[in-house]
Design goal:
The chain is α/β, with parallel strands linked by helices. Helix content is 37%, strand content 15%. The chain folds into two domains: 248 residues, Type I PLP-dependent aspartate aminotransferase-like (Major domain) (Aspartate Aminotransferase, domain 2); 122 residues, Aspartate Aminotransferase, domain 1 (Alpha-Beta Complex). β5, α6 and β6 form a beta-alpha-beta unit. The mean pLDDT is 97.
Length: 376
């Protein structure tokens, strides 16, 4: 089965991991700092805190932003459920706002209409690797007195109006799952410029521990002393995975270029195919394409999905609207809340996209898809 996404691993990755395994540190060592420093080169210098997954990154970001029971977090339903679930786990009420019909990104007007005095955070998702409209969302967040969070699980290395993802929101979260542009196997990170927010993020991902005597309530106990002032969790990303991530980041430009080449090729060869809508791209963004999401018209998405899979092509659907999951249905959320997101989901199909995808493999995907669409 040709997958819709796959990691790109070479000998440099293997050597980087092996070097850590032969060294003195498996976790909380020098590879962590090196990985975070390299990642910051892609965020315009905004410091980063590495964590164990993209889900952990969201949890850390919300905790650092001060999300508490009774707060509201406004976000898009067209995302993996973790974007909303991690806010709900902190006791927040998740408010789902509709998306732009072409990009699938959070619509700023829809978000603005749903903000209240309880809105603590507005979270955009860079769907498929295309940055959201951050200037408009920043204005919405400012009017609401809320923090702006960017879920950039798809968009590492991307830019919006010549500004890098990671420098566009108060807190930005990344994911390094194997299907993403850069992988640490499992892993994530939070980019945050504000020193106070960054300290809260760094403490929350490390049990809430305060090790600096300057911040302790009883610093005279001894050099071993550490304190917890607010509860946290163990979300530390180990050196062995940071070594893999550091090696991967050094090829990020190459990964992005090949993905862009494949996206352009899909665009040329699928343009004008009846019953198919290709992904939109704003003139002022430089995406990092994680997905290639087409929309299959005329109610044929399920048929095309089944027939592509039967042909050995592992297309995927991204994503079930978050509030359609039973856990949100049980909380009282109902279908029909975000009609544009639901319409997008009903037609979306992700075609294979990863750096090692060959032109011949892509040709096979295109030929199979166009043949199916031409048949009834």
């Amino acid at each position: 089965m040709l997958p819709y996404g796959r990691q790109s691993i070479d000998d440099s990755d293997v050597e980087a991991v092996t070097a850590v395994l032969r060294g003195d540190w498996l976790t909380t060592g020098p590879a962590v700092a090196a990985f975070e420093a390299e990642l910051a080169r892609w965020t315009g210098g905004v410091p980063c805190v590495s964590v164990t997954s993209g889900t952990a990154a969201l949890h850390v970001a919300y905790a650092a932003a001060g999300v508490r029971p009774g707060d509201e977090v406004v976000t898009t339903p067209l995302t993996f459920v973790a974007t909303a679930a991690t806010a709900a786990l902190l006791g927040a009420r998740v408010v789902f706002a509709d998306v732009q019909p072409d990009t699938g990104n959070l619509d700023s007007d829809a978000a603005a209409a749903l903000t209240t005095g309880r809105t603590r955070v507005i979270t955009a998702v860079d769907y498929a690797g295309h940055p959201a409209d951050y200037d408009e969302l920043r204005e919405v967040a400012a009017r609401a007195g809320a923090r702006l969070v960017a879920d950039a699980a798809h968009s590492i290395g991307a830019a919006y109006k010549d500004r890098p993802v990671g420098a566009l929101a108060d807190l930005t979260t990344f994911s390094f799952f194997p299907t993403k542009t850069v992988t640490t196997a499992e892993g994530g990170a939070v980019a945050v410029a504000d020193p106070g927010l960054r300290l809260r993020a760094a403490r929350f991902m490390n049990h809430g521990l305060v090790r600096d005597p300057a911040g302790q309530r009883d610093p005279s106990v001894g050099g071993w002393h550490q304190e917890v002032h607010a509860f946290g969790l163990n979300y530390r990303l180990p050196d062995v995975l940071c070594a893999l991530g550091l090696s991967q980041l050094r090829r990020l430009a190459r990964f992005r270029a090949r993905r862009a080449e494949l996206v352009a090729r899909y665009g040329r060869l699928l343009r004008g195919v009846a019953g198919l809508e290709l992904p939109a791209e704003r003139a002022y963004v430089s995406p990092s394409w994680h997905l290639y999401p087409v929309r299959v018209r005329d109610g044929r998405r399920r048929e095309v999905y089944d027939r592509m899979r039967a042909a050995g092509i592992g297309v995927q659907v991204n994503y079930l609207p978050a509030y359609w999951h039973p856990v949100f249905e049980d909380l009282g959320y109902r279908r029909g809340m975000c009609p544009r997101a639901e319409a997008y989901y009903a037609e979306e199909l992700s075609l294979p996209l990863f750096p090692d995808l060959t032109d011949a493999e892509q040709d096979h995907v295109i030929e199979t898809l166009t043949t199916i669409l031409g048949q009834r």
